[in-house]
């Protein structure tokens, strides 16, 4: 891994998630340069100029480069891929399959050509399917290609728990596994408030309501915004993963990883707890799971597999 003075992070896509991720990377001084790339001429350049001017106020030293040229991304240490069409009200994440699949294929080509040693974090929806496609197109080891899902979903669950218990969200630990979608698997057994199990603080019916709200968390924001989707929390989640890799923090974070027998699945991406460090996915942690959760995991992986089959039918895999 490069020293901080030489590190380079590329954020693909200058929409709300991408521009916020670029801002988070710069403010945390994660690297010497953040490259923000988009197909729209002027947009990444304008955002980069704005962020570089903000550095005079906030005091960060990271330089932001806005570009439309893939060559400017070459030799990046890590890519945070946000490009693609966001959901609109009434759309499922799977509705984005074809258009965003084509975007992933195009991005993978210049990552493979110009940054063959990079780590890749995919945020684009439908998340688990897009990271599966990205890895297939890149041909990189699975440990270097992962998806941001569980960090965001767990953050949503954490906030709902904090609201329900009247506690500080900093004291909440939540865990959400499975696909980034309505079939995700919030693991209430592993949710605590400063070490106290959730079930000791909140009755079962309230926990069930929080679980359902977590599953619909992205859709709730889409319906409220009407013309967009969530961006602050997704960007923060992706940058947290990048920081754990770049700084070898070895944080245990739920994210979409390539499974090779773990949890009983082979050759498919889905959300599981993983330790992220200088080698990417250092370890996938297998949690003891009650029967109901195992059934839910079977369902969630089944839905990912349906989307992967659809990609093949579309000729994208």
How are the secondary structure elements laid out?
Elements: E1 8-12, H1 16-27, E2 33-37, H2 43-58, E3 63-67, E4 78-81, H3 97-114, E5 119-122, H4 127-138, E6 145-147, H5 150-165, E7 172-173, E8 176-177, E9 185-186, E10 192-193, E11 196-197, H6 204-215, H7 217-225, H8 232-246, E12 251-260, E13 266-277, E14 280-284, H9 291-313
Parallel strand pairs: 1-2, 1-4, 2-3, 4-5, 5-6
Antiparallel strand pairs: 7-10, 8-9, 10-11, 12-13, 13-14
Mean model confidence by pLDDT? 95
List low-confidence stretches. none
Q: The biggest beta sheet, please?
A: 6 strands, parallel
Pattern of helices and strands: EHEHEEHEHEHEEEEEHHHEEEH
How much of the sequence lies in strands comes to: 15-25%
Largest beta sheet: strand ordering: 3-2-1-4-5-6
Rg on CA atoms, Å: 19 Å
Describe the structure.
With 317 residues, the chain is α/β, with parallel strands linked by helices. Helix content is 42%, strand content 20%. The strands form four sheets. The protein has a six-stranded parallel β-sheet. Strands 7-10-11 form a three-stranded antiparallel β-sheet, with helices on one face. Helix 5 (150-165) packs across helix 8. The longest helix is centred in the last third of the chain and has 23 residues, at 291-313. The protein is globular, with a radius of gyration of 19 Å. The two termini are 31 Å apart.
